[in-house]
Design a protein that fits this description.
seven-stranded mixed beta barrel; binds zinc ion; 12 strands; 267 residues; alpha/beta; 7 helices; two-stranded antiparallel ribbon
Length: 267
């Protein structure tokens, strides 16, 4: 009897562990992985007032102990290249980058493709209609908890500053010369009032368009603790629905933003 119980117990245990492993497999998305991240280098595009990326070689070569050794130091502003805007960037009480819940950064995603209109118009503003058109085409509302990616096609111009930013100049004076598409404030307002999204991303330097003076879309989204991913790439390789995003920024304590490694997994 003891023996039988033990065997039954054993069987149950094996079954349970089988169940757990199936569950884990079902939960972790499998499929083609697409990198949505620009590499960091001396070509990386930064906001015109931000310090650019620098890398300093510390070691490179054979040591006198007979092994090879390479190491570098790098410096970077938070807001440059593929990066995240933490809510505190434009909202005093918003989350810092280390406080953003992982559930906002990993999950189901959709893509809104406005590249047909945006690529020829560097002042293009993504509108409410762009969202409602997506919903009509997909026959679905933007799902609750979705990470919403906006494809303007501008990543194809990266890292050409003149084409991607609208100017090669830097400093405060260059801000008014910026031209690239972004999200219209009324569309940002519509999103936060009518839909429930976890994060937003775009393939331009900023969620607000280049000509924005007061960064209203940033304020609207970040005030609701919706982080923004900027300077994304490869969005043209994504479908409009049914894929997952993993977006993991460097965990900088009290950071207002950070370099971001972001990938998509297509089911
Ligand atoms: Zn930023």
């Amino acid at each position: 009897m003891i023996c039988l119980l033990t065997i039954m117990g054993c069987d149950k245990k094996t079954e349970r562990s089988k169940e757990v492993s199936t569950l884990q497999k079902a939960r972790f998305p499998t499929g083609e992985i697409i990198d949505l991240t620009h590499s960091f280098s001396e070509e990386t595009i930064y906001w015109v007032t931000a310090k650019e990326f620098e890398m300093e070689e510390v070691a490179k070569g054979m040591t006198d102990k007979g092994f090879y050794y390479a190491a570098n130091n790098f410096t970077t502003a938070e807001h440059g290249g593929t990066h995240i805007d933490a809510p505190i960037h434009f909202s005093e009480t918003g989350q810092t980058v280390d406080e953003i819940p992982l559930s906002n950064l990993i999950g189901n995603a959709i893509k809104i493709d406005v590249s047909e209109n945006a690529i020829s118009n560097p002042d293009y503003l993504i509108s409410i209609e762009d969202f409602t058109n997506w919903e009509k085409e997909e026959n679905s509302k933007i799902p609750d908890g979705a990470i919403v990616l906006l494809e303007t096609g501008f990543s194809k111009l990266y890292p050409n500053k003149l084409k991607y930013l609208g100017t090669e100049e830097r400093g405060e004076e260059a801000i008014k010369k910026l031209h690239f598409p972004g999200l219209a404030p009324e569309a940002a307002k519509w999103l936060v009032e009518n839909r429930s999204i976890h994060a937003i991303g775009i393939d331009t330097p900023s969620i607000d368009y280049g000509q924005s003076q007061d960064f209203e879309s940033h304020v609207i989204l970040l005030s609701k603790n919706i982080p923004a991913f900027e300077n994304l790439t490869n969005l043209d390789k994504l479908p409009s629905n049914n894929f997952q995003i993993i977006a993991l920024p460097m965990k900088i304590k009290r950071g207002s933003g950070a370099p971001l490694r972001i990938v998509a997994i297509i089911n």
